[in-house]
Structures are given as C-alpha cells and as structure tokens.
Write a structure and sequence with these properties.
single chain, 216 residues, alpha/beta, seven-stranded mixed sheet, 6 helices, 23% strand, globular
C-alpha cells in the first residue's frame, strides 16, 4: 500500500476528563509537556514519515494547534460521540483533500511511543488478510487498541449512518466490516518492557511517560 494514499489522523478531540479531573475547564492532553515538547509532537515525529498527509482531529478553537502547521479537522457530528467521530472526520477530510487516498490511519494524541513501522505493518497485514477483513487495528499484550487502526475511506458513508443511528462502540462497527488485529511487541527500554501504545490518560501516566523518555 502506497504511503501517499494514506492520511494520518491524530485524534485529539476527546474531553480528557481523567487528565484534568481537578480542573473543570479541562484542556488538551496532547499539548502537555513531555520531555521538553508537547506530547502530540512525539506522536507527530513518529507518524509523519509513515503517511502522505497528516491532520489533527480536534474540536474547539483550532488555533491552539497552529504551531504544528497541520490542518485541524473537527468532528462532523456534534456532542462528543466518541472516537469513531474522529475516524469519520479523517475520512471526510481525505475525501475532500486527498482524492487518491484509500485509507486513513488513526492514532491517539497521547501515545508518544508509537511504532515507527505502524502503518507499514497494518497495511501489510490487510494486504494478506481475507477479503472480509477490511479494518486493521493494533494489538499489544492481547488487547486491541480501537483508536489505532487503518480504515478504508470508502466506508465513510456507512460509518456516518451508523453514528447517526446511535452506534458508539468502535468494535461493534468494525466487526461489521471485518476486524483484523495486528500484533505489536513491547519495546525494551533499559531492560523495562514498554507497550508501544502506552497512552497518558492521567497525571500519573504522564509522569510515567516522562520517566520512560528520561530513560531513553
């Protein structure tokens, strides 16, 4: 699968309630400092070389992401309906701006240790899979990561209809089109195994990420 036909979408449209539980105003997890730069910048560094175009999926004022010089794409459905809305936003952007794009790869903006071969391995697995398996999701430690996956753009209409009908669970929709789990191994950092899809959802997890990067 040609990388130029894949659009990367960094999902930053959530409400980050666990990270900002003590602050009613909330905030953006991806903009928190991690080893001297915003956490989302670590994600960008790892994903950018793997795709033909890259967008940030986020709601609200897009100017807070201006430093990254990337398109900021809001959910096309209101009401914070979950990560599938971010997947759909990425698909719709690809339809409008990268007509040659066949797939969107989504990652969370709080996963700073993403594999540098994520897209290639997901695409390779899809190419070798039976025709009925169309959506590849990352898996580590036996657990699927529903927001980290490779999605065909031509499923956008079907996804929009599903969301409008009230569907919210990612696997409930992906299973309709064949969910393919793709396994990724832990990485060793100074003898410590680190899940490549570790995500910093809470202040203690953010501190753990800082310790891991300090070890690197």
């Amino acid at each position: 699968m040609d990388r130029d036909r894949i659009v990367g979408a960094m999902l930053a449209g959530g409400q980050s309630r666990r990270m900002f539980a003590a602050d009613p105003a909330g905030g953006d997890k991806g903009l928190l400092d991690l080893a001297g730069k915003p956490m989302i910048a670590h994600v960008l560094d790892r994903l950018s070389p793997q795709v033909g175009a890259l967008v940030v999926n986020a709601n609200g004022d897009p100017s807070r992401f201006a430093r990254f010089e990337l398109p900021v794409v809001a959910d096309t459905l209101g009401g914070f309906v979950g990560p599938l809305a971010g997947v759909l936003a990425g698909m719709r952007w690809a339809e409008r701006n990268r007509v040659s794009a066949s797939h969107v790869v989504t990652v969370s903006a709080d996963a700073p240790f993403l594999p540098r071969d994520l897209v290639g391995r997901l695409a390779q697995a899809l190419a070798a899979a039976p025709a009925g398996e169309r959506i590849a999701l990352a898996r580590s430690g036996g657990h699927l990561h529903p927001v980290i996956g490779l999605w065909p753009v031509d499923l956008a209409d079907d996804l929009e209809i599903a969301l409008e009908s009230g569907l919210r669970k990612v696997l409930a929709w992906t299973d309709r089109h064949g969910t393919l789990g793709v396994d990724f191994e832990d990485e060793l950092v100074n003898g410590r195994p680190v899940d490549p899809f570790f995500n910093a959802n809470t202040p203690p997890e953010l501190e753990e990420a800082r310790q891991i990067l300090a070890a690197i």
